[in-house]
Amino acid sequence: MAPRIGVVTFPGSLDDRDAQRAIRIAGGEPVALWHAEHDLQSVDAIVLPGGFSYGDYLRPGAIAAIAPIMTEVIAAANRGMPVLGICNGFQVLVEAHLLPGGLIRNAHQQFIRRDQRLVVENVDTAWTHLFTPNEEIVIPLKNGDGGYVANDETLKRLEGEGLIAFRYAEVNPNGSLNDIAGLSNERGNVVGLMPHPEHAVEPGFGPDSPEAMSSGVDGLRFFESAIAVLTARV
Ligand SMILES: NC(=O)CC[C@H](N)C(=O)O
């Protein structure tokens, strides 16, 4: 049976459908989860999708982090369930303290959309183990609040423990400290990143321009990685 991967929809989520589609293409069974409920519907993994949950009021992800479903998501993450936060989902993970630091307005104060090159540095996670260490990939980036910040002590720990899962290559698009594009927790089950793997899973629909120099489907392996971990467990 295909692993069941839940995708949480909050009011203002945008990319929940694309995340469900990516899961299906990768060989999993997507399960729609609703922010106002406590029911995880026996899923094996969870994706927090991109978008503008609760209109980005207060801070992006701040209100979603205290939505009813997040009580269960946090408990499941702490039990070791694979959880992936994409863009607004990464902001939610940070606001929920499942990952450290914060995400602030892009340094240039503007919303940005570009095909972004990044390096996968930590392949010891549920969502990245099918990449090779330091592999370069290209997936879309689109956000207004993608500047990663953390205090010196946290940055030192993240660097020292190899928890910087993804680093921007060529261009730092938003002023993120240490070019941080995404993180994992110590256990490797919780991963968050600003760029969008779910938008690069089908040839012809991702960043497949000659300039991007990418297959256009670099995002697929995120989902295939989690599915491989879950399938091996059964
Ligand atoms: N694409 C997204 O998920 C946008 C994330 C967030 N609301 C921002 O603009 O920073």
From TrEMBL:
<keyword id="KW-0547">Nucleotide-binding</keyword>
<dbReference type="GO" id="GO:0004642">
    <property type="term" value="F:phosphoribosylformylglycinamidine synthase activity"/>
</dbReference>
<keyword id="KW-0436">Ligase</keyword>
<feature type="active site" description="Nucleophile">
    <location>
        <position position="87"/>
    </location>
</feature>
<dbReference type="GO" id="GO:0004359">
    <property type="term" value="F:glutaminase activity"/>
</dbReference>
<dbReference type="GO" id="GO:0005737">
    <property type="term" value="C:cytoplasm"/>
</dbReference>
<comment type="subunit">
    <text>Part of the FGAM synthase complex composed of 1 PurL, 1 PurQ and 2 PurS subunits.</text>
</comment>
<dbReference type="Pfam" id="PF13507">
    <property type="entry name" value="GATase_5"/>
</dbReference>
<protein>
    <recommendedName>
        <fullName>Phosphoribosylformylglycinamidine synthase subunit PurQ</fullName>
        <ecNumber>6.3.5.3</ecNumber>
        <ecNumber>3.5.1.2</ecNumber>
    </recommendedName>
</protein>
<comment type="function">
    <text>Part of the phosphoribosylformylglycinamidine synthase complex involved in the purines biosynthetic pathway. Catalyzes the ATP-dependent conversion of formylglycinamide ribonucleotide (FGAR) and glutamine to yield formylglycinamidine ribonucleotide (FGAM) and glutamate. The FGAM synthase complex is composed of three subunits. PurQ produces an ammonia molecule by converting glutamine to glutamate. PurL transfers the ammonia molecule to FGAR to form FGAM in an ATP-dependent manner.</text>
</comment>
<keyword id="KW-0658">Purine biosynthesis</keyword>
<keyword id="KW-0378">Hydrolase</keyword>
<feature type="active site">
    <location>
        <position position="198"/>
    </location>
</feature>
<feature type="active site">
    <location>
        <position position="196"/>
    </location>
</feature>
<keyword id="KW-0067">ATP-binding</keyword>
<comment type="pathway">
    <text>Purine metabolism; IMP biosynthesis via de novo pathway; 5-amino-1-(5-phospho-D-ribosyl)imidazole from N(2)-formyl-N(1)-(5-phospho-D-ribosyl)glycinamide: step 1/2.</text>
</comment>
<dbReference type="GO" id="GO:0006189">
    <property type="term" value="P:'de novo' IMP biosynthetic process"/>
</dbReference>
<keyword id="KW-0315">Glutamine amidotransferase</keyword>
<dbReference type="GO" id="GO:0005524">
    <property type="term" value="F:ATP binding"/>
</dbReference>
<dbReference type="InterPro" id="IPR029062">
    <property type="entry name" value="Class_I_gatase-like"/>
</dbReference>
<keyword id="KW-0963">Cytoplasm</keyword>
<dbReference type="InterPro" id="IPR010075">
    <property type="entry name" value="PRibForGlyAmidine_synth_PurQ"/>
</dbReference>
